[in-house]
Amino acid sequence: xxxxxxxxxxxxxxxxxxxxxxxxxxxxxxxxxxxxxxxxxxxxxxxxxxxxxxxxxxxxxxxxxxxxxxxxxxxxxxxxxxxxxxxxxxxxxxxxxxxxxxxxxxxxxxxxxxxxxxxxxxxxxxxxxxxxxxxxxxxxxxxxxxxxxxxxxxxxxxxxxxxxxxxxxxxxxxxxxxxxxxxxxxxxxxx
Length: 191
Fold this sequence. Notes:
Number of strands: 8
Low-confidence stretches: 1-29
Strand content: 25-35%
Number of helices: 5
Structural class: alpha+beta
């Protein structure tokens, strides 16, 4: 589904497949107003809207297709293709305000995983919600004995410094990938 949204020459995008498998049914409370839990079907519309707000229409369409398919597909099929697949939703005062995904790529070594579709509603940014989501994904990767966690992001949206605060280091860059002046930045962190 994801590749339908992109032109065929975007070969590097193969690292951005994502589907969902829940790792735990538990909700993790970060503070009294914020909980991080696995994504539910009812979250997709709200999460798609915040991805559209932060990343744009094309990405929102791709994310919605990925999330809907992953929430309805057979867990057996998903587990065979992607052994580690999870989306987490940040819920602040009973409202879904953020998302962060984690997945493995069948072409990567088994000890490598990727962060995907990370976004927080603009009205709720700078409250530690993105950090709580990323920490949940990092903890899940550690529980699965991953040795390396990776992410790619656009240089123009300010997320490079966000990931650096958590220990990610830039490992590569494709200049003007998204548009003139907007590079694709690859980052990784050893666990």
